[in-house]
Amino acid sequence: MKAKNYEAWEVLEADYPADDPMEERLKFLLRYAILAPSGPNTQPWKFAIHDGSISVFADLSRSLPFVDPSNRTLYMSVGCAIANLAVTGAHFGFTPSVSYFPRGQESDLVAEVQLLPGGQSPDKLPDDLFPQIQRRHTTKDRYENATIEPSILRELEKSINLPGIYLSYLDDKDSKVKMADLVSRAHQIQLAKKEFRHNLGEWLRNNWTAEPDGMPLYTFGVPDAVSLGFPAAFKEFDLSRAVIYRDSGLIHDCSTLAVLTTDQDDKLTWTQCGFALEKLLLRATSYDVRASFFSQPIGLADLREELKAQINRGHPQLLFSLGMAKPMRPSPRRPLEDVIIKPP
Ligand SMILES: Cc1cc2nc3c(=O)[nH]c(=O)nc-3n(C[C@H](O)[C@H](O)[C@H](O)COP(=O)(O)O)c2cc1C
Questions:
Q1: 226 and 267 in a common domain
Q2: Which residue of 122, 165, 200, 313 lies most exposed, with the fewest beta carbons within 10 A?
Q3: What's the 19 CA to ligand 1 centre distance in angstroms?
């Protein structure tokens, strides 16, 4: 029997309540929205269902003040959930239309997603992305020794088709060495700080976790027995050497590194960047290509500037690696009921 905190992944397309009232149909679409990735699996979203549209809110009570002080990662994660919602809406025959920050960027209402019955937007949201929502997961352990076809990389680049958002690949050895060094320095700076370790450590989970959020350590390849004491040890001690060792493998053994950059650098941009990222991840999943993320250098102003100078194409939002990897056990999700609120 599936543990309760993994039940969200069991959603069946055949259960779509096609003949039920609109509210029930929109609620069903959200079952797929909540399968989106979020750093570090905080699932920082809330939804309110209206007649024909869904309000998507940022749940700022789930922000990490020492790890993600600007909430960049939080808004990107909400953007990922909006992408899943739009892809799912299109799949079930709606035309999704996303209006970002309709009350301005100071409001926690991130988007109003209108779902008009009928019609499709096949150019923008190809239907073959939908089955990838349940197959996608982040790779945090290791890649297989295989390179990604150049045609697939071009395909992934094409999925970033929003103005002001760019994807750059760094696949040469020299760039990998530079990026591994940047990520290592970021870990050294951040993991030396107790507040940072405590803040991130709150979201680490042992391998038998019954919690609906956070990162089970099996996703990082940590053995069961070690996982029991790991969250407490992570908070107490500077484990940067082990973390750097793991991330270096994910950088040197990947097929290519990638950086998402943007012209602007605000909540709207972060959300749209998350939307573009999730579309890319779903497309990647269709080729069994997986991603691993390195948010650390982006979270430190000096290192972000270094990365900016290296890419020279706007503000860096996310550094990640791409490679072939085996499917693995998913991470927990909060029950849908916990993230649906009454329309304010
Ligand atoms: C914007 C963003 C940034 C992320 N940054 C990191 C990161 O720096 N390190 C990491 O190990 N995972 C990172 N992740 C991956 C999350 O930890 C992962 O999505 C979450 O644990 C849920 O797991 P899943 O993606 O396999 O469903 C990030 C995810 C998102 C959406």
A1: yes
A2: 122
A3: 36
